[in-house]
Write a structure and sequence with these properties.
There is one protein chain. This protein has 382 residues and is an alpha/beta fold. The chain has one domain: Anaerobic Ribonucleotide-triphosphate Reductase Large Chain (Alpha-Beta Barrel). 41% of the residues lie in helices and 18% in strands. The chain contains 13 helices and ten strands. Strands 1, 2, 3, 4, 5, 6, 7, 8, 9 and 10 form a ten-stranded mixed beta sheet that branches. Helix 1 links the parallel strand 1 and strand 2. Helix 1 crosses helix 8, helix 6 packs across helix 13 and helix 7 packs antiparallel against helix 8. The longest helix is centred in the middle third of the chain and has 30 residues. The two termini are 39 Å apart.
Length: 382
C-alpha cells in the first residue's frame, strides 16, 4: 500500500508561526523516513493550518497579499510542496482565495458553503462559484481548481487536500492510496455477497501495521497521531481504478444498477476497520484522477446526478469534475447548493472540486498534461 500523504496540522494564533511550520516539516520528514524504512512508498508530505481568516484577522486587507507572498517564499525555501491554508467561512476573507492561491501552486484552500450547526452559507456559495470561474480562466489550464474546493460540513483533520484543515494541538494523520487493493479484493470475491467480508479482512491487514508505525512516530516525536483516513484514494492506472473494481462484482459498467449498493459496501467497510480513523473515511470518486472513472465518463455511463446519488452513501461529493468552460456562475452555484444541502441533510462531509474547461464544451475531451490527472470527456451540465 502506498502512503498518499502524511499530513501534519498546526494551529496559528494571530500570525503565521514559522517555527511551527519548520517543526511540522521536520515531523513529516521523520515520519516519511520511518515509513520508507518499513518498505512503504510515501508519495507526499503536507502541512495543514487552521482557517487563514483566524491568523490574518488583525492585518489590513491590503496586507494579505504580502503575508501570503512571504509564506510562499518560505515554502519554496523550505521545500514545503503542499500546504493547506485552511477552510474559510467568513465571506470577507473568502473573496481573497483566488488571489492567494494564484501566488503558489503549493497552496490549497477550501470555502465553507455550509455546516450542520449553521446551515447553508448562501453568500459563500456565490463566492465559491466565482472563485471556481476565476481559477479556470486565470491559472494555467485552470489547474488552480486542483487547489480549491467548496466544502460542506467538513470537520478539521482531513489529511487530503484541498478540503483538509486543522484545529487544536499539533497532530499528524495518514492518507493512503489503496484502490488497487479494493480492485484485488473484489476480483477475489467475484460476488457482491462476499465482497464486504473479503474487503474488510484485506484492509484490516493492510491498515493495522500502518497504525502501529504511526503510533511509534507519535511516541518518538511527541506529536499526536490523529488517525488514518481510510478512504481508498485511487491511482491513475487501470488496475488501480475504483470504477473497474466495481465491475469485478458483476456490474456491466460503473454507473449501471448496483453501483450505489457497491459504493455503500466500500463505505461501510472503511468506516468500521479496527484502526483509529479520521477525515472523510469515505469512498472518493475523483473523475480526473481515476482511469476507469474517466473511461466510463467517455462512455456516458454516468452523469453528475449519478455522482451526487452515490454521495448519499459514500463521499466525498464532486471531485475533479470537468464541465464546460462557459458554464455560468449561477449554474455552478446550483451545483454547490446541491452539495451543501446533501452534506447538511445527511450530516456528512462533502466537497466539490469543479473544473470548468476554458474554451471547451460538453462532450469534448480535456487535454491536461499533469501527471496527477487523466483526460476524459467533459460532462454536460443540465
Amino acid at each position: 500500500m502506498r502512503i498518499r500523504t502524511i499530513t501534519t496540522g498546526v494551529e496559528f494564533a494571530e500570525t503565521i508561526n514559522y517555527d511551527a511550520l519548520e517543526n511540522a516539516a521536520k515531523c513529516n520528514a521523520y515520519a516519511a523516513k520511518i515509513f520508507e524504512k518499513h518498505g512503504y512508498e510515501v508519495e507526499t508530505v503536507r502541512i495543514s493550518t487552521n482557517p487563514f481568516e483566524e491568523y490574518v484577522k488583525n492585518a489590513e486587507k491590503s496586507e494579505i497579499p504580502t503575508i501570503f507572498s512571504k509564506l510562499s517564499d518560505f515554502c519554496k525555501e523550505s521545500k514545503i510542496e503542499f500546504i493547506s491554508i485552511g477552510e474559510v467561512s467568513n465571506p470577507l476573507y473568502a473573496r481573497n482565495i483566488a488571489d492567494v492561491l494564484k501566488l503558489n501552486e503549493s497552496f490549497s484552500c477550501s470555502c465553507n458553503i455550509g455546516k450542520i450547526e449553521t446551515g447553508i452559507n448562501r453568500e459563500n456559495i456565490g463566492i465559491a462559484a466565482e472563485t471556481i470561474k476565476r481559477l479556470a480562466h486565470e491559472t494555467i489550464q485552470g489547474l488552480g481548481n486542483f487547489q480549491f474546493c467548496a466544502s460542506a460540513n467538513c470537520k478539521p483533520g482531513i489529511p487530503f487536500f484541498p478540503a483538509g484543515y486543522h484545529q487544536g494541538e499539533t497532530s499528524f494523520a495518514i492518507g493512503v492510496e489503496c484502490s488497487d487493493h479494493v480492485f484485488q479484493a473484489f476480483e477475489d470475491a467475484g460476488d457482491y455477497w462476499v465482497a464486504e467480508e473479503i474487503l474488510r479482512k484485506k484492509l484490516n491487514n493492510l491498515f493495522m501495521p500502518i497504525e502501529k508505525i504511526a503510533q511509534k512516530v507519535a511516541h518518538e516525536t511527541g506529536i499526536k497521531f490523529a488517525g488514518i483516513d481510510t478512504s481508498p484514494s485511487p491511482g491513475i492506472k487501470p488496475d488501480e481504478s475504483l470504477a473497474f473494481a466495481f465491475e469485478k462484482l458483476g456490474l456491466s459498467r460503473f454507473g449501471s444498477h448496483g453501483t450505489l449498493a457497491i459504493a455503500s459496501i466500500i463505505t461501510k467497510v472503511i468506516k468500521s476497520l479496527d484502526v483509529k480513523t479520521c477525515g472523510y473515511a469515505g469512498l472518493m470518486l475523483p473523475v480526473l484522477e481515476d482511469f476507469g472513472l474517466a473511461e466510463r465518463a467517455n462512455d456516458n455511463s454516468y452523469d453528475l446526478q449519478n455522482l451526487l446519488l452515490y454521495s448519499t452513501v459514500c463521499g466525498c461529493g464532486y471531485d475533479t469534475i470537468p464541465i464546460p468552460g462557459d458554464t455560468s456562475v449561477k449554474t455552478i452555484e446550483n451545483i454547490l447548493l446541491d452539495v451543501a444541502t446533501l452534506g447538511i441533510r445527511l450530516d456528512k462531509p462533502l466537497s466539490a472540486r469543479i473544473f470548468p474547461i476554458a474554451g471547451k464544451k460538453a462532450g469534448e475531451m480535456t487535454d491536461f498534461n499533469s501527471p496527477y490527472l487523466v483526460n476524459c470527456q467533459i460532462f454536460d451540465v443540465k
